[in-house]
Amino acid sequence: MQRATARLFITTLLFISSATPALARKPGEPPKPGFNLYSKQQDIEVGKEAAAQVKSRYQQVPDRELQSYITQLGQRLAKTPTARNSGFPFTFTLLNYKQVNAFALPGGPTFVFTGLLKASDSEAEVAGVLAHEISHVVLRHGTHRESKANIVSGPARVIGVINSFSLIGRLVNVGLGLALDGIFLKNSREDESEADALGARIMVEAGYDPMALARFFQKLEAQGGPGVPEFLSDHPSPGNRVEAVAAEVRALPQRTYNTDDRQFQAEKAAIAKLPAPPDFQPKSIGISEADATGFKKLSTPQFSLEYPAGWKVHGDSESNILAIAPDDGIVFVHGDPAIAIGSVVSYFFADPDRSTLSVATGDLIQRLRSMDPGLHESSGQKQIEVDRQPGLISQYSSESPLGGNETDLLVTVARPEGLFHLIFVCPDKDSRDARPMFEHMVQSVRFKEPKP
Question: Does residue 351 belong to any structural domain of this protein?
Answer without folding.
Answer: yes
